[in-house]
Design goal:
The chain is built from eleven helices and no strands. By secondary structure, it is mainly alpha-helical. α2 packs antiparallel against α3, α2 packs across α8 and α3 crosses α8.
């Protein structure tokens, strides 16, 4: 039984993000997904350790790894376009569902049921998906900070808007990440050491 699923996943490295912005350093979907997974895992750990939660931090990281994989088939639709109006958002959601169905179809039949819950939201994962969404935005914030640090002012407005959108989510773990970890992104490697 052969399957092209992982060969398709390996194409994540060819999908560049921030297509409407001038980038000093190109960020691909693989890099973004890994960073999002790191952050999502920590947000879940913070929820459990500091806020009395009981979420599965490993599942949170796994959901984050797969959260944008459909963009292999759809491309990275810029946020301003995706959320321009409800009709575009609804149409994009339908395209994304088609991409999910296609991705799952690439798997052997006997393991499809193991991967489907990584693509489609499952009952009981609501808290985890909120943390993944916050981690996704934090990854975007980190990209904005890194671009600003490289002298690219094109990301200044995006940095402010992204920070505001994270704050508006009212997720204490995300606020804690910003307070405790984000300041170090403004330092050089020598200053971090």
């Amino acid at each position: 039984m052969s399957s092209k699923f992982f060969a398709i996943l390996s194409r994540m490295k060819y999908i560049n993000r921030w297509g409407l912005m001038r980038n000093t350093i190109v960020e691909n979907l693989s890099e973004h997904s890994l960073e999002t997974a790191f952050v999502a895992h920590l947000l879940a750990v913070l929820r459990n350790k500091r806020f009395g939660g009981n979420v599965n931090s490993e599942r949170c990281a796994l959901l984050a790894i797969y959260h944008d994989t459909t963009e292999i088939l759809t491309g990275d639709l810029p946020t301003p376009v995706k959320y321009f109006n409800p009709e575009i958002k609804t149409a994009y959601d339908a395209v994304e569902q088609t991409a999910i169905d296609k991705m799952i179809s690439y798997l052997p039949d006997d393991i499809k049921s193991e991967y489907l819950p990584l693509f489609e939201k499952q009952e009981g994962d609501t808290e985890l998906w909120k943390l993944v969404k916050a981690a996704d935005k934090i990854s975007a914030l980190i990209k904005c900070i890194e671009e600003r640090q490289m002298g690219n002012t094109d990301f200044s407005k995006a940095e402010k808007a992204t920070l505001k959108s994270i704050k508006n989510m009212k997720i204490p773990e995300a606020d804690m990440f910003i307070d405790e970890f984000i300041p170090y992104y403004n330092l050089t490697l020598d200053e971090q050491a």
